[in-house]
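sry for the spam today, last one i promise. struct tokens for design, 278 residues
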């Protein structure tokens, strides 16, 4: 089961990384950079955007396999390699230039997340109370309101914050997938976690698309991957009884620090490659 889960996570990483580039191409050809109905409608009419959606859905199926077969933050950390895929393709497709420090940041992000994966212990609860599920909807509302406000802003900070918020949305997907009662149609239709998953996924996807209109694809993706990995890790340990391996807590802390440094370094890269909004 471990091999299946890790294999599914890595396959999802490749697909998610390529989908980031496809979405970047789509949103940069679309007018507007704020979160509005007109922007959504325009994006949905773009074939490249539709392809990006299809790729992300395929990656999501593989990710769910990982979430159901390995510990929560191990599955989340397993898709961190998508950052390296995105960076490599950004160089080829957009002509972005990654210097030695940037490549070191990509490597640091992946190594840090790998350390988090190595420090993970046994998975905890695979179900949650109604209060916990309600908390997912409250978190969704908070992220949505914040994202709407930030989408009205421009510049490096706005792009990074939107990427971070998109990651929080995707973190909600991972958490909700973890607590689904089962994958049968009847159980899914009656579970609040199912609807939390759909709402969080849609919000994360939309915020990420808007963020790509404001900043370089690699830099926007970096904080997204960090938040979608760190948030489930914390929730898993604090609320779902996931374990950190005995004696590995320092490794987990170092992994968080290294990952944070990598994301900050990539945010500096964004300053010289941010696209001009139309």
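last one done:
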């Amino acid at each position: 089961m471990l091999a299946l889960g890790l294999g599914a996570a890595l396959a999802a990483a490749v697909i998610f990384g390529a989908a980031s580039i496809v979405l970047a191409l789509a949103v940069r050809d679309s007018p507007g950079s704020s979160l509005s109905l007109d922007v959504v409608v325009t994006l949905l009419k773009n074939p490249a955007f539709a392809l990006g959606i299809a790729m992300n859905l395929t990656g999501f199926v593989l990710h769910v396999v990982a979430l159901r077969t390995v510990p929560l933050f191990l599955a989340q950390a397993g898709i961190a390699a998508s950052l390296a895929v995105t960076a490599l393709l950004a160089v080829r497709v957009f002509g972005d230039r990654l210097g030695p420090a940037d490549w070191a940041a990509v490597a640091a992000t992946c190594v840090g997340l790998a350390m988090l994966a190595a420090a993970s212990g046994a998975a905890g609860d695979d179900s949650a109370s109604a209060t916990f599920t309600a908390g997912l909807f409250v978190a969704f509302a908070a992220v949505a309101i914040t994202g709407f406000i930030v989408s009205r802003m421009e510049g490096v900070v706005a792009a990074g914050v939107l990427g971070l918020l998109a990651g929080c949305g995707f973190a909600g997907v991972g958490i909700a997938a973890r607590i689904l009662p089962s994958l049968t149609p009847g159980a899914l239709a009656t579970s609040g976690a199912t609807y939390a998953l759909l709402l969080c996924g849609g919000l994360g996807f939309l915020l990420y698309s808007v963020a790509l209109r404001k900043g370089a694809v690699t830099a926007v993706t970096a904080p997204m991957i960090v938040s979608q990995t760190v948030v489930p890790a914390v929730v898993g340990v604090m609320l779902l009884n996931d374990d950190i391996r005995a004696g590995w807590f320092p490794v987990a802390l170092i992994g968080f620090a290294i990952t944070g440094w990598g994301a900050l370094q990539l945010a500096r890269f964004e300053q010289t490659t941010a696209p001009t909004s139309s």
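The CA atoms of residues 12 and 71 lie 16 Å apart. ok im logging off now
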